[in-house]
């Protein structure tokens, strides 16, 4: 069914046609989630002084461009800056006439032109002022912040978002480098992780249900089949058939270790007819090739077991999210059957089409029965919990059952920073990374130093203005940050690492904190990609920091 | 002031060379739009942009230079216009044209510092690759699929070219599978799209690329029958806009044709024969179905629904064709409708008729959404991947401008894995590459005067020192050899040789030279008295072909099925090394076992023995 788009009178809507190429990636449900999303971009936090207008915010605007095009519901740009000549050199979404006008207003206007389906708003203010209205932040599904942002603004903003369960992306693009981090809610569940199709096959050959057993039993004498029939028995049925034979001669046990499985494979291979003109049979080749992968007892992946063991799954309440109610029902299913609901899809195989379709039906029917059982448990839980929310849609339960073996819960972390109240594990990870050759972590550290330098300039009440390239500022903040990275055993950051951090800092200072359009555009692609994953709740989002080095065309991910 | 951030980060020298550069951007699609923006804002001085396509609604989710009001207009021209509006100081040139046209010849390619490929099809990619190799211009090649992307720097003689690795070609199906004996849903979809739709509304003489209709003795009669069948269908075109057209088409393709197939009992010995559908029943069912059913593209329609969409879309297409015929000017070709995955009427028609046929042949029915993917060869595409890929293209081009090819990389984007962006060093050219290992010489001709004899005698024999025993080919067409010299007096121009044409020269002598490609440049000014009508532009050294390999030891021929030696054996290790050395992934098969066996022959120089063994296959590659 087309859930997302009501059937129009003339074929698919123009919206469906416009979004056709991306619907192939996240389907109607993902598109609906996007269209229900309003995104906040905090694109600067005011000027750095009299002469420096502060963050140019190109990466922020480019990120938004990549979200407006695929059709988010709307966006709001918060940016107190006025368009300057240097903005025009790097920002595509400003025109000559924009000079001297509000940057929020101008970028909003030009971004809106990209997609008439998307609403755009702007505020020529600092975000601090807007946060005084408690209704402001909850209107948004995602917050994107262009750094550097002074801590006195960043911390309250990210904390409030965390309390509201709103994900945050904090990004920097300076010279040839960019970094960004994702702050997700404490638990961020994903059902549609889109695993590699190869890994999702679940054929249940070692614990077939009665209908599948019956289909295989129908084969009992392969020798009576003519060559054509023999060469078209679906390999699944061949394996089930030969497994029975194997069990007879092995005290009822299926092949369980590598040696037995290879023996079994050779046994299957030896049963192929070679007297035909082809000198072999494709279906037997397929069967032999599938032995090692499919003759494996079902086992619950540890990541799924962990989800079952989480408090949210064990202790449901009336306010539990749909995800946890379904997860709990699946857990019950697993407890009583020892397996997860059958996904129900069948790989391609050599077979007569009618046979293939009937085998497909056996799998589909079983999958449907499993969904029905889980649905019944869900309905039972819903009434038991006396939930006030609308009933969980049948479709969600079905999708969950299909993906049950690959669901994921990301445990959200704060935007990482190197400070006195940093998480000890964050500092430890950074220290360890510093020992890795060619690591990009020095770029992350340099960005942290830049953050503190800018923070000090912005917060300072001093009369004379200091530049972003001020030696004294960089030296003092570099030493401060390096001191924070001192190991628990008192070991300081080594010379080699210090030199790497200094090199990265040099690039940031050379750029004077400014952006290169090309790097910011690329970064806008990277950041928007994560935003799309977060908004559609599909695929696995970044956990939690990405560093990009444009000089080496290379990126790395870190969990900080 | 505007450029200050660029100057700070790129340095004065690089900024200047970008400003003075002249680059070509081939393709103004997803990557192209992003690239144009990035090139302009990175300070590239002069950008030429070429694209053959016009803007479609389904482009707007990513090709951000285009708006709704631009639909059906030229991508290249609109991209230029919009980018120019944002950047009035950039020098932009746009061509709404095919990059494969002869006007874009080698000397035109030579006028650029770098070429960026942002194309969506292999044929054009290969063409630009070849032209850049001949013109010796660095090429930044790129492409995306969904979340994945790739950027590759190509420089003649230094790196791999686009064709150094064999590219997967689209699948084709035998004509009889499509027309008589479908075994999978895709066969019915191809039938509906490439046979039924063109026969009724299109240009049925066009060969569909996915149908392989090469005749052999086995299917010659079958093909004759199919021709007759098609003729009957063509007659139906006369009455396509009448009320009962759908009934006539149904009776023909789902009735009469199926009955004929049922009669071919050989086909149905081992499988269920096709079954006829009950027209009256379908008509009855479809009466209660609203035409809005075709909007439900995610679920599989019932047979009645498919029939209803078939009838409805046939009427829609017939009306459109009639309208086109009525408004056609006398000197225009008669109008046709062709399949376009984004054209709802054609997609509805293909979905419904493919499904009706699938039901007849006991195959699985498909949803419209799936049919669109299968028939349209749709590649998922989003803005984010394009943004990243285009950014990486520019970064790689900076290495080229800095003359720092060693630092340039092959870059990949991937959704999974620890890195979103990963890079690899560029590889040296593949010595067996059918494209970049070829020798190319430019020859200038006077189109008014130059004959084949001028080329053969003056250029090849006198200037390049070829003997008499050579043959010349244009593409696959032989135009000259020692026995076939009738064409010598013909003008090259009359033989279809234009500016930019390639002619392959094969040396048929005992100790032969490698094949040579002559690329033609036409003289723009008439030749002076003393200049010859055809002249060599650049002298080249033409190496000899490697000597034919000695026959491998004979004992492996006696034991062709000899199994591979156990893995502890030394020879198996050697055999493995050899396999890694070959480019294609060869499936383990008996031939492989043979190669292993021959490698196991004791030899004081193991590696040499292996090379010899491989020659047999290598020779085929070089010689084609
Ligand atoms: Zn090559």
UniProtKB/TrEMBL annotation, chain A:
Residues 19-537 form the THIF-type NAD/FAD binding fold domain. GO terms for biological process: protein neddylation. One of its GO terms (cellular component) is cytoplasm. It comes from the Eukaryota. SUPFAM superfamilies: Activating enzymes of the ubiquitin-like proteins. Coiled coil: none annotated. GO terms for molecular function: NEDD8 activating enzyme activity. InterPro entries: APP-BP1, ThiF/MoeB/HesA, ThiF_NAD_FAD-bd, Ubiquitin-activating_enz. Pathway: Protein modification; protein neddylation. Keywords: Ubl conjugation pathway. Pfam families: ThiF. Belongs to the ubiquitin-activating E1 family. ULA1 subfamily. Regulatory subunit of the dimeric UBA3-ULA1 E1 enzyme. PANTHER family: NEDD8-ACTIVATING ENZYME E1 REGULATORY SUBUNIT (PTHR10953:SF29), UBIQUITIN-ACTIVATING ENZYME E1 (PTHR10953). This is NEDD8-activating enzyme E1 regulatory subunit. It comes from Penicillium rubens (strain ATCC 28089 / DSM 1075 / NRRL 1951 / Wisconsin 54-1255) (Penicillium chrysogenum). The lineage of its organism: Eukaryota, Fungi, Dikarya, Ascomycota, Pezizomycotina.
UniProtKB/TrEMBL annotation, chain B:
Keywords: ATP-binding, Metal-binding, Nucleotide-binding, Nucleus, Transferase, Ubl conjugation pathway, Zinc. GO terms for molecular function: ATP binding; metal ion binding; SUMO activating enzyme activity; transferase activity. Pathway: Protein modification; protein sumoylation. This is Ubiquitin-activating enzyme E1-like. Residues 545-624 are annotated as: Disordered. ATP binds at residues 27-32, 51, 59-62, 75, 120-125. Belongs to the ubiquitin-activating E1 family. It is found in: Nucleus. Zn(2+) binds at residues 161, 164, 433, 436. Pfam families: ThiF, UAE_UbL, UBA_E1_SCCH. The active site is at residue 176. GO terms for cellular component: cytoplasm; SUMO activating enzyme complex. Heterodimer. PROSITE patterns: PROKAR_LIPOPROTEIN, UBIQUITIN_ACTIVAT_2. It comes from the Eukaryota. The keyword Transferase applies. GO terms for biological process: protein sumoylation.
């Amino acid at each position: 069914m087309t859930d997302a788009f009501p059937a129009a009178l003339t074929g698919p809507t123009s919206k469906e046609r416009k979004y056709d190429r991306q619907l192939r990636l996240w389907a109607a449900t993902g598109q609906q989630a996007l269209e229900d999303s309003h995104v906040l971009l905090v694109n600067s936090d005011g000027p750095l002084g009299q002469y420096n207008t502060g963050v140019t915010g190109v990466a922020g605007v480019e990120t938004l461009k990549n979200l407006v095009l695929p059709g988010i519901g709307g966006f709001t740009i918060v940016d107190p800056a006025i368009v300057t000549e240097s903005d025009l050199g790097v920002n595509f979404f400003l025109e000559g006439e924009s000079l001297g006008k509000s940057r929020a207003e101008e970028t909003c206007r030009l971004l809106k032109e990209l997609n008439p389906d998307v609403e755009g708003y702007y505020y020529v203010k600092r975000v601090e002022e807007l946060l005084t209205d408690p209704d402001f932040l909850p209107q948004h599904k995602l917050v994107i912040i262009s750094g550097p942002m002074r801590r006195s603004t960043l911390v309250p903003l990210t904390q409030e978002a965390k309390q509201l369960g709103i994900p945050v992306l904090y990004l920097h693009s300076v010279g040839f480098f960019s970094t960004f981090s994702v702050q997700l809610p404490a638990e961020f569940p994903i059902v549609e992780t889109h695993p590699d199709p190869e890994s999702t096959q679940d054929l249940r050959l070692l614990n077939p249900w009665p209908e599948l057993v019956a289909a295989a039993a129908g084969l009992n004498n392969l020798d009576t089949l003519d060559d054509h029939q023999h060469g078209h028995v679906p390999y699944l049925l061949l394996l089930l058939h030969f497994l029975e034979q194997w069990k007879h001669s092995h005290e009822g046990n299926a092949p369980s270790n590598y040696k037995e499985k290879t023996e079994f494979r050779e046994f299957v291979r030896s049963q192929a007819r070679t007297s035909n003109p082809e000198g072999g049979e494709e279906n037997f080749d397929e069967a032999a090739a599938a032995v090692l992968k499919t003759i494996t007892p079902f086992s619950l992946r540890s990541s799924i077991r962990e989800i079952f063991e989480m408090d949210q799954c064990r202790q449901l309440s009336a306010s539990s999210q749909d995800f946890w109610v379904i997860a709990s029902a699946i857990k019950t299913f697993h407890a009583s059957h020892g397996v997860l609901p059958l996904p129900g899809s069948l790989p391609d195989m050599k077979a007569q089409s009618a046979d293939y379709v009937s085998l497909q039906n056996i799998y589909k029917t079983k999958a449907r029965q499993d969904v029905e059982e889980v649905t019944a448990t869900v309905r039972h839980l819903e009434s038991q919990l006396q939930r006030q929310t609308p009933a969980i849609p049948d479709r969600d339960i079905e999708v969950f059952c299909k993906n049950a073996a690959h669901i994921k819960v990301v445990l959200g972390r704060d935007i990482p920073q190197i400070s006195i109240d940093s998480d000890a594990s964050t500092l430890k990870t950074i220290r360890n990374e510093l020992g890795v050759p060619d690591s990009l972590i020095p770029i992350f550290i340099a960005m942290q130093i830049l953050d503190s330098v800018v923070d000090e300039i912005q917060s300072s009440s001093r009369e004379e203005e200091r530049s972003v390239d001020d030696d004294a500022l960089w030296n003092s903040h570099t030493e401060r940050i390096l001191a924070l990275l001192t190991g628990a055993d008192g070991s300081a950051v080594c010379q080699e690492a210090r030199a790497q951090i200094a090199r990265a800092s040099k690039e940031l200072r050379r750029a004077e904190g400014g952006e290169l359009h090309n790097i910011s555009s690329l970064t806008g692609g990277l950041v928007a990609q994560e935003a799309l994953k977060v908004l559609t709740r599909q695929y696995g989002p970044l956990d939690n920091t990405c560093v990009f080095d444009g000089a080496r065309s290379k990126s790395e991910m870190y969990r900080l | 002031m505007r450029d200050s951030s660029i100057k700070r980060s790129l340095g004065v020298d690089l900024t200047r060379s970008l400003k003075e550069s002249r680059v070509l951007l081939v393709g103004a699609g997803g990557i192209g739009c992003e690239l144009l923006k990035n090139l302009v804002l990175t300070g590239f001085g002069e950008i030429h942009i070429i694209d053959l396509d016009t803007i479609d609604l389904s482009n707007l989710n990513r090709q951000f230079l285009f708006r709704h009001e631009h639909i059906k207009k030229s991508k290249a021209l609109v991209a230029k216009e919009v980018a120019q509006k944002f950047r009035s100081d950039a020098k932009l040139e746009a061509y709404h044209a095919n990059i494969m046209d002869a006007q874009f010849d080698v000397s035109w390619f030579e006028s650029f510092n770098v070429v960026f490929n942002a194309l969506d099809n292999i044929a054009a990619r290969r063409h630009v690759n070849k032209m850049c190799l001949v013109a010796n211009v660095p090429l930044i090649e790129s492409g995306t699929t969904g979340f994945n992307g790739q950027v590759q720097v190509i420089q003649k003689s230094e790196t791999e070219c686009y064709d150094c690795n064999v590219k997967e070609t689209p699948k084709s199906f035998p004509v009889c599978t499509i027309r008589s004996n479908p075994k999978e849903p895709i066969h019915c979809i191809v039938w509906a799209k490439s046979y039924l739709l063109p026969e009724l509304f299109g240009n049925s003489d066009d060969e569909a690329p996915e149908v392989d209709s090469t005749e052999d003795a086995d299917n010659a009669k079958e093909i004759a029958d199919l021709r007759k069948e098609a003729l009957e269908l063509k007659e139906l075109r006369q009455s396509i806009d009448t009320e009962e057209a759908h009934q006539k088409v149904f009776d023909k393709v789902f009735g009469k044709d199926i009955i004929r197939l049922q009669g071919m009992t050989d086909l149905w010995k081992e499988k269920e024969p096709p079954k006829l559908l009950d027209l009256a029943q379908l008509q009855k069912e479809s009466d209660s179905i609203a035409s809005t059913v075709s909007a439900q593209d995610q679920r599989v329609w019932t047979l009645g629904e498919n029939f209803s969409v078939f009838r409805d879309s046939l009427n829609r297409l017939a009306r459109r064709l009639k309208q086109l015929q009525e408004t056609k000017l006398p000197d225009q070709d008669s109008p046709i409708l062709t399949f376009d995955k984004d054209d709802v009427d054609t997609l509805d028609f293909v979905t419904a008729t493919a499904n009706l046929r699938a039901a007849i042949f006991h195959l699985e029915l498909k949803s419209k959404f799936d049919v669109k993917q299968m028939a349209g060869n749709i590649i998922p595409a989003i803005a984010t991947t394009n943004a990243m890929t285009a950014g990486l293209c520019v970064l790689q081009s900076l290495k080229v401008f800095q003359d720092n090819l060693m630092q340039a990389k092959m870059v990949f984007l991937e959704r999974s894995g620890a890195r979103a962006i990963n890079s690899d060093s560029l590889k040296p050219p593949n010595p067996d590459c059918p494209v970049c290992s070829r020798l190319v010489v430019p020859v200038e001709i006077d189109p008014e005067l130059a004959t084949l004899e001028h080329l053969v005698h003056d250029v090849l024999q006198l200037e390049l020192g070829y003997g008499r025993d050579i043959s010349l080919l244009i593409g696959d067409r032989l135009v000259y050899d020692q026995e076939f010299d009738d064409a010598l007096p013909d003008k090259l121009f009359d033989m279809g040789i234009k500016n930019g044409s390639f002619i392959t020269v094969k040396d048929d002598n005992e100790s032969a030279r490698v094949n040579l490609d002559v690329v033609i440049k036409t003289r723009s000014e008439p030749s002076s008295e003393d200049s010859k009508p055809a002249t060599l532009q650049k002298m080249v050294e033409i190496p000899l072909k490697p000597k034919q390999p000695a026959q491998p030891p004979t004992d492996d021929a006696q034991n062709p099925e000899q199994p591979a030696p156990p893995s502890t054996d030394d020879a198996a290790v050697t055999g493995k090394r050899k396999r890694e050395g070959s480019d294609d992934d060869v499936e383990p098969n008996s031939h492989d076992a043979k190669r292993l066996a021959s490698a196991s022959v004791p030899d004081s120089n193991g590696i040499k023995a292996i090379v010899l063994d491989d020659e047999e296959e290598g020779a085929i590659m070089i010689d084609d």
